[in-house]
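Quick one: structure for this chain?
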Amino acid sequence: MAGDFLVVTEKNRSPRINHVSWGRLEVEGRAQPYKDAKLFPGGSREWNWRETGTNHVPGIQQADVQELLNHDAEIVVLSRGMKECLEVPRETLEFLKQRQIEAHVLPTAEAAQLYNQLAENGPVGGLFHTTC
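Got it. Here's what it folds into:
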């Protein structure tokens, strides 16, 4: 797993998304594109759904977003996939709200655009699903 982790630059700077398309997320500082990715202040890594039991339904788990918070993300962008098939349970959004973390839930292309805008101003984290 350690080989999947990428440190970008300064600790609190979130990596920029260079390109997103079906099944492909190109991230600053990484030669190979991701299919699904976690981006956070200081780096990025492959988002392996099996680690937390994530699936399209019930959707993004609290453990998925906790990793972003562990890297000091102050805002979180959650992508639902290109066709919005990935669910975001109410419990996950409540988990973020209780921690006073601003959350945005969008289709992947729009999520990537918003993530890049937010990353210019501070520590943001994101979960990106690039297919359905």
